[in-house]
Amino acid sequence: MTKTVVLCGYETIKDALINHADAFSDRPITPVTDKLLGNNGVVFSSGENWKVMRRFALSALRDYGMGRKAIENKIIEEAECLVQKLKSYEGKPFDNLTCINAAVANIIVSILLSHRFEYEDPTILRLMGVTNENVRLLGSPWIRMYNSFPSLMDWLPGAHRTVFGNIREFQKFIRATFTKQKKELDVNDQRNLVDAFLAKQQEGKPESEYYHNDNLTVLVGNLFAAGMETTSTTLRWGLLLMIKYPEIQQKVHNEIERVIGLAPPQMEHRKQMPYTDAVINEIQRFGDIVPGNLPRATTEDVTFRGYFLPKGTLVIPLLHSTLRDKTYFEKPEEFYPEHFLDSKGNFKKNEAFIPFSIGKRSCAGETLAKMELFLFFTTLLQNFTFKPTAGAKLDLSPALGATNSPKPFEICATSRK
């Protein structure tokens, strides 16, 4: 049995992931990830392959997304499409999962493929469907059983077979897409991340051996799932918390009216909106989307805080322990935006707020995610007052899955314009 170490508390996690970054930078090999992904992509790979794919992903996300005015404009446009979709419900109850997922998915799809899907497009509905189903099932006992008894479970029915089938279907779509793009490729006019990867294949440099089709297939799947799931889940937590705490929603409305008025929200507004900024941070803290982070593995024998950890030790940095730490958050079990405000109402950072993790394995899309959260959230709150359905019991306990997502809920959006 693999030895496992759980890291609790901000200081301990920071010590491991920052001060001993190299020693804690691998991913453990599990039967499920090995069968599905091998040592490909960026999320679950290790060693030199991970280093090359991480560098490429950060570079491509920067070139085609993060921090660029073009992607900010794309998010603003997509947010307006989402507003029109919500207006079509005319204040009647609706399930917000599909439309929010689709809006967020369109941003990462534009970076990966230079494409946008209509919210009812069967292709994006299917891709989101298999992704959401896998996120839910990957937290199930079936997967834990598979990781313990893979040879036996290969012969048995169960949710693990659904997960494997979903991954195969998703990868089939990715392969068909990049095969088509390869035929159209102009290395002097790279339109998106897939084009940039295909161009790398042709460079003939020592690193080119890592730019093979299996890595591209898994990398695109990694970025789609990570780019859609966590951001859309955070937005859905945001809507649930706004209808749970209407007085907080009203304060956000007031700040939007005072700072932005009727103009489209832009990133330059954020520094003038400390309360809204604090609310978004608190949504992330309270929602606690990835409480156990993704597991790490030690790359070498290491002595850490007096304990000897052999190479290959499985390490779980428990982000939940930092986001609920009383030392850093006055009311850790409550939704309390004042965690991120000083006595004068100015925004204040909190070093224990690490929802994107820290160190060499921190979220590659953190900058993009922050941009999406601010622009989507403020645009929705600018345009609508969100209310619960009649007689609804608002449950803030998370659904079972690989991430902490809200349980399904319907919502009413009343237009404010």
UniProtKB/TrEMBL annotation:
Domain of life of the source: Eukaryota
The keyword Metal-binding belongs to this UniProt entry's keyword annotation: yes
Cofactors (names): heme
PROSITE patterns named in the record: CYTOCHROME_P450
Entry's localization field: Microsome membrane
One MF annotation (Gene Ontology) recorded for this entry: heme binding
Main location: membrane
GO biological process, alphabetically ordered: aflatoxin metabolic process; organic acid metabolic process; xenobiotic metabolic process
GO cellular component: cytoplasm
Pfam families xref list: p450 (PF00067)
Keyword match DNA damage: no
Keyword entries, A-Z: Endoplasmic reticulum, Heme, Iron, Membrane, Metal-binding, Microsome, Monooxygenase, Oxidoreductase
Binding residue positions for heme: 363
Classification via PANTHER family: CYTOCHROME P450, CYTOCHROME P450 508A4-RELATED
Family: Belongs to the cytochrome P450 family.
Record-given protein name: Uncharacterized protein
Native organism: Eleutherodactylus coqui (Puerto Rican coqui)
